[in-house]
Amino acid sequence: MLAVSLALGLVRLSRGPDVMDRLAAAQLVGTVGVAILLILAEVTGDASLRLVALLFALLGAVTVATFLRVTLVETGTASK
Amino acid sequence: MNSIPDVLGALLVFAGTAFAVLGTVGLLRFPDPMSRLHALTKADGTGLGLCVAGLSLIARDVSAAMLMILLWLGVMLSGATAAHLVARRLLARQESAGGN
User: Fold this and answer.
1) What are the boundaries of each domain within chain B?
2) Which of A22, A30, A48, A67 could form a disulfide with A16 if both were Cys (CB 3.0 to 4.6 A apart)?
3) What ranges do the domains of chain A cover?
4) pLDDT at A12
C-alpha cells in the first residue's frame, strides 16, 4: 500500500507541471520512504533501519530548505 | 500473538498507510498547487503519525518507540516549515506575475 503511494508520488514527481509540485512530491516520497523503513525495521527486527529512517527525515528537511534557497537566488527575489 | 496491542497497532499502521495513499491521490488530482500542498502536509503528518503510533504499540520497546516519536516530531517540524516556505514562494510569484 505504501509502495502504491510511493509510485504515485514518483509519477507526480516526474510530470509535475511546476517546480513547486516536484518539490512537494519529493517531500512526500521522502516521508513515505521513512514510513516504509520503520515498518521494515519492525518486520525484520533490524533496529538499525530506524536510524536510517531518522537520517532520511533529516536529509529531507535539508533538501527542501536548500532547494528553496537556490530558487530564490536564481529568480533574484532573495531580499524577501 | 493476537494480543490487544498487536491488533490495535496493526489497525493504526493500516490507517496510516491509507492516509498516505489518499494524500498521494490528492497530490495527483487536486487542481492547483496550493490545494496540492494542503493534501500533502495532511497526509505527511497524519499518515506517519498513525504509523508511528501503531508501530510503537507493536514494538513494546521504549527506546524504539521514543526514537520513532522523535523522528515523527522532526518530520512534523520540517514538513510544516517546508510547506510554509513553498506557499510563500508561490504567493510571491503570484504577486509578481499579477501585473505590478
Assistant:
1) 4-97
2) A22
3) 2-75
4) 57
